[in-house]
Structures are given as C-alpha cells and as structure tokens.
Specification:
By secondary structure, the chain is of the alpha/beta class. It has 2 domains: about 5-15 and about 260-380, Aspartate Aminotransferase, domain 1, CATH 3.90.1150.10; about 20-255, 3-Layer(aba) Sandwich (Aspartate Aminotransferase, domain 2). Helices cover about 40% and strands about 15% of the residues. The strands form 3 sheets. It has a 7-stranded mixed β-sheet with strand order 2-8-7-6-5-3-4, sandwiched between helices. The structure holds pyridoxal-5'-phosphate. Pyridoxal-5'-phosphate binds near residues 102, 178, 181 and 201.
C-alpha cells in the first residue's frame, strides 16, 4: 500500500505538474528580481517573465493581456470584483448572486449586505443550476453586478453562462463569473463570452497555490472598480503589491499545459469517472448522483449513500482522499450549503462524498476507490 492515500480531491486543489515546478525554479534562485525594478537586469528579467506569463494566460483565455490582473487567487479576485464594483457604483447599488456559489462569493456578498447594499440571492434548481430567466427578473435599474459561477465546485454542474451573460448585457448590467473550476477543464473561450469580470486560480489546474487572476473586460465606458488595497499601484492600480514572479511563471506554464492537454485529458478523465460510477453502482444500491447528470465537469462525481453516517464513512476511508458533504469549502464542518440549496435532505447531504479526478489519476486509483468505498458503505450498513 502507498504511504499516502490515493488523491481524489482535485476540486480542492491539484498536484503541481513537475513541468510547472521546473519552469518556476529559476525565478526563485537565479532570476529573483522585482518586476518593478526598472534600473537593472534582475528587474528586466522578472518583468519579461511576467509579461510572457500574462501573454500565455491571455492566449489561453482568448483575451488581451492587459485585461488580466494578477491576484493571490480566486478568493481575492471575487472580493475585488464584487466589493470593488459595488463600492464604485452609485449609492443604493444592487447585487445579484445565487445560493450555490462558493463562500468566496457569498461571504463578500453578505458583508456588503451588512453594510447596507441590496443583495438578491437567487435559488438554484435540483442540479444546482441558476435559471437565466430568474436572473433577468431580479435585475432592477440599480443592479450593479450579477455574479454566477461557471461550474460548481461541489457537484460539478455547469451554469448556462452564455444565456445569463447575454441577459445582463442586454440590460447593461455587469456580469462576473467565478470560473475557477471550469477553466482548463472544459472549453471556456472567455474573450468570446458575454462576461465582464472573471476569476480564476492556478492551483486548480496543476499550478501553484497563491496566484490567480481577475479578468476585467475593456469596454466603453470602462468598468469602474475600487481596489481593495492601496499601495504601489501595481496591476493597473487594481492590486498593489510586489508581483510573485515564480508563481506567475508557474501560472502561465500550467495554463499552457492545460490548453495543450485539455481535450485528451478531459476524455480520459470522463472515462475514469464513468468507471468509478459504474463500479460503485455494480456493488452498491441506494446511491444518489448529486448535480447534473450530463452538464457537469469531467472529473466530478458527487454521490450520496443512503443509510450511511457521513462522518463514519469519512473516518473509515483510509486509502482515498476525498471530500465530504460537510466541510466542503471551509474549515467549518457544516453541511454543504450547495446540496441544501439543491433541496437534498440533511441525511443525504451528510452522507455525501465528492470525488475529484485529475491529471495524475490512473485506472488503479479508481479501482482502489471502488473497493474502498463499497467495502466501507457495506460495513456501515451492516450488509
Ligand atoms: C468555485 C470556487 N471559487 C473560489 C475558490 C477559491 O479559490 P482560491 O483558493 O484560489 O482562493 C474555490 C476554491 O475552492 C472554488 O472552488
């Protein structure tokens, strides 16, 4: 048996691809200049590397390099987009989001609400999807921003982003999309989509933790955003702070690899997911698939097991690393707000597991998972 359990939690984070590590190393040890140092070769080299990485990222997203602001990750990008737009909007601004978003959207929305901003939290359907018509109906003259995620991090369901973005565009309302789980996993040509602001993060696509981006579409009139930090005016005055050059280089490289591998990798990962699903269905009854059966991320399988205590199940699973329907998105072991919003009972929510299959998973990993989960569920059911 391996020293470590099989890693099947690729929606939480991913292993950094060794090719990404190789690309980053020289920027810790040799080219360690500050990209803002304009007087010497160390600074020039750092600046060159940042420009190259920004261009790599831009070409994968199909957008202009100058529309990308480097941040520490999607939590920060979401905060800048949501607080920054509402802060810059005329007083009385209104925000629309939905109950299945990540806490990195819901918590900034709640903070704004406590500060007096009008916030509408739309419901989602039984798959975790937002209805574009409900978005349209919720828009008011004072609506400053709509924020809807591309793909749900717990159940993998894809939202109808084109329809929602088009509704917003027709009503001249800004549209922000948290696309952390979608980019690099499904085709997502940002530049061709009706999206004004978009958040993403490197660590979900085999890149380093601590680096992400906020895309801000160039349009006229320009999108007004209040920065969260004041300082050196980096990143177009939207995100002050010395740029983490090694992380940015790694971000560019993981995006390049994601674009290069995506089609083959996606098909292989869907095959592994189907194998896992079939293998569990062959051995167990009382299984529920959470999320949309077809419109979902390739590597996501979120299942509830009838008649099983979720905590006991998690405790018993020693050979695989997965995530449970509690403690999905934060350090707080609360039942998943996403499954609740989808109308799933507390019992099934607590008895759920999220499998996230990624680049480095193999057929053997899936066989281990099938055996481990089937054995443990049967044991807990006393069958
Ligand atoms: C949908 C979604 N949004 C935001 C985040 C936060 O991203 P980061 O870890 O880059 O701050 C995550 C991470 O789990 C996520 O899945």
């Amino acid at each position: 048996m391996a020293d470590y359990p099989v890693y099947l939690d690729n929606h939480a984070t991913t292993r950094v691809d060794p090719r990404v590590v190789d690309a980053m190393v020289p920027y810790f040890s040799t080219h360690y200049g500050n990209a803002a140092s304009i007087n010497h070769a160390f600074g020039w080299e750092a600046e060159r590397a940042v420009t190259a990485a920004r261009e790599q990222l831009a070409s994968v997203l199909g957008v202009a390099a100058k529309t990308l602001i480097f941040t520490s990750g999607a939590t920060e990008s979401n905060n800048i987009a949501i607080k920054g737009v509402l802060d810059a909007a005329p007083p009385g601004g209104h925000l629309i989001t939905n109950a299945a978003e990540h806490r990195a959207v819901l918590d900034p929305a709640k903070r704004l609400q406590r500060a007096g901003v009008n916030v509408t939290i739309l419901p989602v359907d039984e798959f975790g999807r937002v209805d574009p018509q409900q978005v349209a109906d919720a828009i008011r003259p004072e609506t400053a921003l709509v924020s809807v995620m591309a793909a749900n991090n717990e159940v993998g369901t894809l939202n109808p982003i084109v329809e929602i973005g088009t509704m917003c565009q027709e009503r001249d309302v800004l549209f922000h999309c948290d696309a952390v789980q979608a980019i690099g996993r499904i085709a997502f040509p940002v530049g061709e989509l009706p999206i004004d602001l978009l958040s993403m993060s490197a660590h979900k696509i085999n890149g380093p933790k601590g680096i992400g981006t906020l895309y801000v579409r160039r349009r006229s009139p320009r999108i007004r955003i209040q920065p969260l930090f004041d300082g050196g005016g980096h990143e177009n005055h939207l995100r002050s702070g010395t740029l983490p050059v090694p992380l940015i280089v790694g971000f560019g490289e993981c995006c390049r690899l994601a674009a290069e591998c995506r089609d083959d990798e996606g098909a292989r990962i869907v095959g592994l997911r189907e194998r896992l699903w079939q293998g569990l269905c062959d051995r167990l009854d009382g299984l529920h698939l959470n999320g949309h059966p077809d419109d979902r991320l390739p590597g996501n399988l979120n299942l509830s097991f009838e008649g099983v205590d979720g905590d006991a199940l998690m405790t018993g699973l020693k050979r695989i690393a997965v995530s449970s329907g509690s403690a999905c998105t934060s350090a707080l072991p609360e039942p998943s707000h996403v499954l609740r919003a989808m109308g799933i009972s507390d019992a099934l929510t607590r008895a759920s597991l999220r499998f996230g299959i990624g680049r480095f998973n193999t057929d053997d990993d899936i066989e281990v998972a099938i055996k481990e989960v089937a054995t443990m569920v049967k044991r807990l059911r006393g069958s």
